[in-house]
Amino acid sequence: MKAFVLTGIRAMEMREVPTPAIVNADDVLIRMKSIGVCGSDVHYYETGRIGSQVVQYPFTVGHECAGVVEAVGSGVSRMAPGSRVAVDPAIYCGSCDQCRVGRRHTCRKLRFLGCPGQVAGCLSEYIVMPEKCLFPIGEAMTLDQAALAEPLSIGVYAVKQSIPMKSADIGILGAGPIGLSVLLPARAQGARTVHVTDKIDARLNLSRRMGADTTANPDKQDAVKEILAHTPAGLDAVFECCGEQDALDQAIDLLKPGGVLMLIGIPRVDRVSFSIDSMRRKEIRVQNVRRQEGCVQAALDMIDSRAANVDPLLTHRFPFEGTKEAFDLVARYADGVLKAVIEM
Prior knowledge:
The chain is α/β, with parallel strands linked by helices. It contains ten helices and 19 strands. The chain folds into two domains: 2-136 and 310-343, Quinone Oxidoreductase, Chain A, domain 1 (Alpha-Beta Complex); 155-288, NAD(P)-binding Rossmann-like Domain (Rossmann fold), CATH 3.40.50.720.
């Protein structure tokens, strides 16, 4: 089969690789149809690593995907060839201490699509996944929408882990696909006000169309001052979705005493810092968000019911042969790109 593999920093190419085989009874062979380009994929493309996860070339990335079942193992019962499925890219063991207490996303033996040293990604014609990681989708849902359920599930999980949204004032710093994937469930669950910042005006415009009350560009204005003019008491929760130090500083300034800082963005540095004086005096609570746990079906249900309209997130489509062009576009934040999708 054909696959796109990273071959060096900002280098990738299409190669012929072995087609994965069904080995276990619960294995499912899936023909890829839609693959989203995630910011973490671009991290690997541009730097060859995320923290301790270092690419050994050649390597295939990609984890946001949906496709059609091609073949199934002898123990598969929920789907058959021809089934259309969304994919949860996290393969958990089900037996470690983390899995036993309902934390499968921090499984001790977790293997994740497109993560170096774990599982080759989905930028290929076929992948094999265990049945437990697959979610059948209805005919009304497009495969592109099903692929976007992966980032949306992170937003659903982040909102679930924060505070009750009803009558909450929240901030979202970074209006990329993850930031907007937080906005959708926050609005659906009754957030009173949602304030969004980003350094790209087109993303701020989209944020307003998707339900943000106020927006601010920190490169052009004092974003903290603008938001606090609307909510003088401060925000109940801030979702940091861009992994930038200046956004972390702004989050502390925006939060009211007792507020919660949700860390979702992945920094490109090994260490970040906080104003401990401000954090201590306000008694700020900090919550890291590690992907998602058990929220894929909830995300799919939101898409299916139109409680979350993910279509505006998808701004660019590329054929498989144009994968490198897609990665370069996303890496440059060019042409108003928000989410690029590779359509097989």
